[in-house]
Amino acid sequence: MKHRTSTLVALLATFANFVCPFESAAKQPNVLLFMSDDLTWHDLGCYGNKEVRTPNIDALAQQGMRFEYCFNSAPMCAPTRMSLYTGIHPVRNGAHPNHSEVYPHIRSLPHYLKDLGYQVALLGKRHEMPESSFPFDVLGGRHHDNGDGVDLNLSLAQKFMHTNKDKPWCLVLTSNQPHTPWNRGDASVYDAAKLELPKYLVDTPVTREAMTHYYAEITYMDAQLGTALKHLKESGQADNSIVIYLSEQGSNFPHCKWTCYDSGLRSAAIMRWPGVVKAGSVSQALIQYIDILPTLIDAADGDSKNYGFDGLSLMDILRGKQTAHREFTFGIQTSKGIGGGPDAYGIRTIRDSRYRLIWNLNWEGEFQNGVTRRFPAYQSWKQKAYAGDHFAMEQVQRYVKRPEIEFYDLHSDPHEMNNLATIPRHRARIDDMLNSLKGWMKQQGDEGDATERSALSRKIKRTYR
């Protein structure tokens, strides 16, 4: 009898070993992560823009949690994406310049989720290197869009969802919109004369016309997301899927991309997770893109604390167990090596819930990029400035020539146009934040000017497929 009981216990244990992994896997949520390309955070309906048409993103915000204060690590495509996929800030992972690559030992989202039993694929724009550090199953897509043909074949996403119905999956969809050239969508639906421009832009006919094409691409991209969500619903897997929307960094307009202002680093971020995230909720927590990967690992029954990420899991925020997440967010702009860029113009920044401090490492020089050299809207600003317009002259000059320290009160000055760095009453706060920024740089291995000037050593020697 004792032998028969022992045998039964052993058989039950063996059966449990086979059954439990399947039960656990069934509970693992799928992940659909959709990212725009060069979209300033406030240029969406659910983030307060009353003119741009984004019905699908707005609906997603009503179905999930909208993050009011999400930030990138860098206001450029490649560093942004590689910090998102690795959970590590750009200098520490090696990919701080644009068109760069992480160190060979760095692992990323495909590694971690594949280890947890996921199928992990990417469809769309590529901006991560080397490929061995980002082993996505690449379904297709383009790295930049010339406006011809189908740039994001979402039927491939549909096929992927149906093929992997019986296993957990993660699909990253990376649109090329609204990155320049603005050659998609119907700009005629936007009346240039009636648009309300952000306060940091100079009002010229060229700027207004450019805004209609930029908005048209946003609406075009919103439709792509809508199609992806339709495919997810039709697959019958929406209730067991985390959907994440991210806007990436700021647009091509001056004071956005390539800058460390909110209009450069701040991002729209929405997460829908039926049964876990409260629909229509808004989080005021300070979060960064580096927090996404640890969150997905924990959601997939892994333990993100095992990997030494810079990012911190958002699971307690998503579940409504806490409202605060970070005291500070950090950012870096490496200007050496960008198109039309300067020899060196490194920028570092720290932000809390109210103030932003920016440290321009090479402030004695001039900031330059493709915007200053050939962007038509900026050229129209210069023409207006030279014709005697004071505001235009201010915006032209402050884009290329900046003081060493900038300090802004985001409560009273959300567009960061009034630098308070020389006001005595802010001196103690500036010193505290600058010391915290320097401490973060030390932890990252960031040597400031030396890191900026050596940036070309991190650039890739080959192109994306």
Account of the protein in words:
With 465 residues, the protein is an alpha/beta fold. It folds into 2 domains: 27-327, Alkaline Phosphatase, subunit A, CATH 3.40.720; 332-458, 2-Layer Sandwich (Arylsulfatase, C-terminal domain), CATH 3.30.1120.10. The protein is 35% helix and 15% strand. It contains 15 helices and 12 strands. The strands form 2 sheets. An 8-stranded mixed β-sheet has the order 4-3-5-1-6-7-2-8, with helices on both faces. Strands 9-10-11-12 form a 4-stranded antiparallel β-sheet, with helices on one face. A hairpin with a 3-residue loop joins β10 and β11. α6 packs parallel to α7 (205-234). The protein is globular and about 65 Å long. It starts with a helix and ends in a 12-residue tail after the last helix.
Summary of the model, kept short:
The chain is an alpha/beta fold and 465 residues long. It is built from 15 helices and 12 strands. The strands form 2 sheets. It has an 8-stranded mixed beta sheet with strand order 4-3-5-1-6-7-2-8, with helices on both faces.
Helix tally?
15
Task: Please identify which CATH superfamily of the largest domain we are dealing with.
Answer: Alkaline Phosphatase, subunit A
Helical residues, percent: 25-40%
Reported CATH architecture of the largest domain: 3-Layer(aba) Sandwich
Largest sheet: spatial strand order: 4-3-5-1-6-7-2-8
Shape: globular
